[in-house]
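Amino acid chain:
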Amino acid sequence: MPDLASYSGWAAHDGFVAPSRTRAAPWRLVLGVVMIIGVGLALNTALALVLSTLAPAFWVSQIAGGNPPGQSPASLLVLLGTFAFFSVGAALAVITLHGRGFATLIGPLRPALAQFRAVLALVVLTGLTIIALPPYDTGLSLEPNLPLATWIPLLPLSLAALLIQVGTEEILFRGYLQQQLAARFDSPLIWIGLPSLLFAAGHYAPSEAGENALLVSAWAGVFGVMMADLTARAGTLGPAIAVHLANNVVALLVVAVTDSMTGLALFASPTAASDPALVRAWLPVDFAMMLVSWLAARLALRR
């Protein structure tokens, strides 16, 4: 077994991976991925059937009306909530194929929660500090999206839905995939690199980002590497979920810059994410913020 402590302080990763070592055959991982995707899609289909049958007006007007999903509060809440179906698939996979509990995908729960709180607090404080510093003009032309009187009451539901979304993504990529790959392969190039490549591929959306799709996908890949590093340092998913949540709160609840998924945002940019000038101007800024959040999370873990 390699000395994970030699990898930039990743000693805690060995304990995080330990539950996955007993049934780490590659065929189990492949079958597990198929099961996760199959269960998630099946439950999504079942939900569509239920909504179209029991609430046809809602289904047509909010979900299947021809517009991109996520442009209304209800449709985006439903969309984010359906990520939980893939967590159900992950639970079934680890229980039936790997003989371990769902909670092992997250790591020890008490430390995970403590790390989540500490990292989220420092990342939010760092972000607010940066916002308070000049220059105060973002250069973005923002338009009001949701009225404040609507946005505030929706905030608890919005945060809960986002927590489901980011939690599921971390459970799948930095939990299931990273653990099972690390249980079989010593090299971080595999157990960090492969999940991060898949995470990047999952964010490749040329229909939304146009010619910026590769840049956005590359951004997601780097983000995945950073979240994998935090998970290896912490031995839980708590810090990665915290950073991911803070990032998506800004992108989906504060300022939305996509053609879709604007339903819960306080502001929206009239310029879409497919605009080359917008992305090329803001991607370095966004990358810098991502880097600062990652460093702040690492600092929180050292306290």
